[in-house]
Amino acid sequence: MAASGASAADALSAATDAFAAAGVDTPRLDAEVLLSELAGIDRATLVTDRELALEPAAARAFSEAVRRRIRREPVAYILGNRGFRHIDLTVDRRVLIPRPETEMLVELALEVDPGTVLEIGTGSGAIALAVADELPGSRVTATEVSDGAIEVAVANAARLGLGDRVGFELGSLPDGPGEFDLILANLPYVPDSDGLPPEVGQWEPEGALFGGPDGTDVIAEVLTGFGRAGIEAPVIGLEIGQGQGEKVAEMVRQAGWPEAEIRLDLAGIDRVVIGRR
User: Fold this and answer.
1) What is the mean pLDDT of residues 145-157?
2) How confident is the model at residue 277 (pLDDT cuts 50, 70, 90)?
3) Where along the chain do its domains lie?
4) Using CA atoms, how far apart are residues 152 and 28, in angstroms rounded to an integer?
5) Is 265 exposed, middle or buried (0-12, 13-18, 19+ CB in 10 A)?
6) Angstrom distance (rounded) from CA 277 to CA 257
7) I need a surface site. Which of 53, 126, 174, 245 has the fewest CB within 10 A?
C-alpha cells in the first residue's frame, strides 16, 4: 500500500500485487484507475514517469482505496462515480453500477427517437438520464421501487441539469394509465442460484439483481402489470441475461407486442428483447 512520500510507481506495484493476491481480475488496471482519480494524475503519466512522487494526501487516500478494493468493493463505489454513455453518474451501494451492455437500451431509444419514454427500474437513473441527454426533445418518466435508489437518481438528474425532463416515481409502474412512445427496462434477471463475483454478490443491491429461479420472474410480473395499469407503447426494450432470449421474447408477444426481436451483445449473449406492435 502507498505510504506518505512513496513514488507513484512503487504505490502502483504494491497495489497491483495486493489486488492480484485478493483475486481481483484486473489488478493493474484497477490500481491505475484508482491512483489516477485520487491523485489527479493522468494514467499515461503514472505509467511513464517512474520518479513521480505522491503528495501525502493522495498517498493516504490511495492507501484507503487499496484497503477497500482488497475487500472486493467495486472501483465505482470507491470513487463514487461511473461513466455511462456521455454522462457521469454518482453511484453507491444503493444502486447497481451501470454496465456497458445496458447502453444497448439507449441505442434503441436513438433508433426509435421517441417523444415520451417510460423506464422501469431506473436505479441510478443511467438509462433515463442518458436518453434525456442524447434526445433533447424527449420527456422521460422513470420508476423505481427502492427509496434509496430513487434518491440517487434524483440527485444525478439535478447535478446533470436534466431534472426538468426526467420525472421519477416511486413504485414499480407509474401511478395511473398512460401512453408512451417507448418503454425501456433493465429489471432483475439473475437466476437465484447463480454464483456472482464478490464485487457483485457482496456489494451491489440484491433486490436489483435476482429475478427468481430462472431470472425472469420480475420481467413477467412487470409485463403482466402493463395491461392492468393501462400503460401502452408501440415499442418496448428489455435487458435480459444469457439464455433468456426465447422465453422473454414469447412473454413479450403474450403481453401484446407480437413482433419480438432478440439482440446479442458484443460477446454474442442474449442481451435485449425488443417488442413492437
Assistant:
1) 97
2) very high
3) 8-71, 93-276
4) 30
5) middle
6) 5
7) 53
Collapsing DSSP to helix, strand or coil, 25 comes out as coil
Beta-sheet pairing, 182-185 with 235-239: parallel
Q: In CATH, what number does 93-276 get? A: 3.40.50.150
Of residues 158, 151, 117, the one with CA closest to residue 134: 117
Q: What is the pLDDT of residues 198-222, one digit of tens each?
A: 999 999 999 999 999 999 999 999 9
Mean pLDDT of the chain: 95
State the Cα–Cα distance between residues 39 and 49, nearest whole angstrom.
14
**Predicted TM-score (pTM) of this structure:** 0.92
Q: Of all helices (H) and strands (E), which one includes residue 67?
A: helix 56-70
Strand residues in the chain grouped as ranges (E): 81-84, 87-90, 116-120, 139-144, 166-170, 178-179, 182-185, 231-232, 235-239, 259-264, 270-276
pLDDT score of 3 more than 80: no
pLDDT at residue 95, as a whole number = 98
Q: For helices 147-160 and 126-134, give the axis angle rounded to 10 degrees.
A: 20
Q: Which helix (H) or strand (E) holds 76?
A: helix 75-79
Distance CA(108)–CA(131), nearest Å, equals 10
Is the pLDDT reported for residue 156 higher than 60? yes
Phi, psi of 227 (to 5 degrees): -60, -45
- Report which of 222, 215, 231, 239 is spatially closest to residue 107, judged by C-alpha positions: 239
The neighbouring-strand residues paired with 229 are: none
**pLDDT tens-place string over residues 14-63:** 999 999 999 999 999 999 999 999 999 999 998 888 789 999 999 999 99
Residue 51 C-alpha cell reads as 520518479
